[in-house]
Write a structure and sequence with these properties.
Number of domains: 1
Shape: globular
Helix content: 40-55%
Oligomer: single chain
Distance between the termini: 18 Å
Order of helices and strands: HEEHHEHEHHEHHEHEHEHHHH
Number of helices: 14
Largest sheet: 8 strands, parallel
CATH topology: TIM Barrel
Mean pLDDT: 94
Structural class: alpha/beta
Number of strands: 8
CATH architecture: Alpha-Beta Barrel
Radius of gyration: 18 Å
């Protein structure tokens, strides 16, 4: 899966990654309340210009706002459901009781998922291991996995307080898989090699979500599929130059935003540091 990456995963990049092996893509994070206000910038974040499989990532903490939004929502070709963000580490978002602050609010999260299901849509959750080391030690994330009937759990193996240079704790995945009661668990965070995927598959996860590595090489999904033997035949992997040209063609045909294109070209083929992400 292609991770939702703010400022990057518009319809153009989602389609490029889908063409090169991603099974599922996600829109950027967007506040439900912004949709209700008709905020153009927020609406552009969920703009869909083709039928690439995608889930819309939502940030909300209020049932009535989600209900209002879904009441006017119309599914489209490629729509695969909604992803509730319980992982955003922004201090402002957490102070609003959203993002990673929702990890310890199992009952409320369950109600939000029920609202999405009541409208006939799938609901996945993207979570972290808590807002800080204390919440991780208390294993608050297991309450979500054991108490919310989502269709899919995506787990970023860090707390919200951890920086991008800190290591992900993959050791949590076996207990997460057990707690999830048969609901698929997707691993997220620092996944950039076939060896890591093999390690995670051995822990019982159903799949992986890739972010940074897909920005520098959108064909990493093809690379991993080839190395893991997931393609019926080895698929040729395009060069960075070829990917750049393919992106530009898609950008024109899908009428992508210039800001997205500028940022994509800035990181393509490069090592991404914290300042770039």
């Amino acid at each position: 899966m292609l991770a939702p990456l703010e400022g990057y995963t518009d319809s153009v990049l989602r389609t490029l990654c889908f063409r090169h092996g991603a099974d599922m893509t996600f829109t950027e994070i967007a506040h439900v309340e912004s949709f209700l206000r008709g905020n153009r910038q927020a609406l552009e974040k969920i703009a869909v210009r083709d039928s690439t499989p995608v889930q819309i990532q939502l940030l909300t903490g209020k049932e009535e706002h989600l209900e209002s939004f879904l009441g006017g929502f119309e599914p489209f070709p490629g729509f695969e459901g909604f992803n509730l963000n319980l992982s955003c580490p922004s201090p402002d978002v957490i102070r609003q009781g959203k993002g990673a602050a929702m990890i310890k609010r199992t009952a409320k999260t369950g109600r939000l998922v029920s609202i999405i299901h009541a409208h006939g849509h799938k609901a996945s959750l993207k979570i972290r291991l808590g807002t800080n080391a204390y919440e991780k030690a208390q294993k608050v994330y297991l309450n979500i996995l054991g108490g919310v009937d989502a269709n899919l759990f995506i787990i970023h193996a860090k707390t919200a307080s951890q920086g991008s240079v800190e290591e992900n704790d993959y050791s949590v995945y076996p207990e997460c898989v057990d707690a999830a009661r048969g609901i698929p668990v997707i691993a997220n965070g620092g996944i950039d090699s076939a060896d890591k995927v093999r390690q995670l598959r051995g822990m019982g996860v159903a799949g992986v979500m890739i972010g940074r590595a897909a920005l520098t090489n959108p064909a990493i999904f093809d690379v991993l599929r080839n190395e893991l033997g997931l393609n019926e035949a080895v698929k040729p992997v395009p060069s960075i130059t070829a990917l750049e040209a393919e992106y530009d063609t898609l950008h024109e045909s899908l009428e992508g935003g210039e800001g997205y294109a500028r940022d994509f070209h800035r990181v393509l083929g490069k090592r991404i540091g914290k300042e770039n992400y």
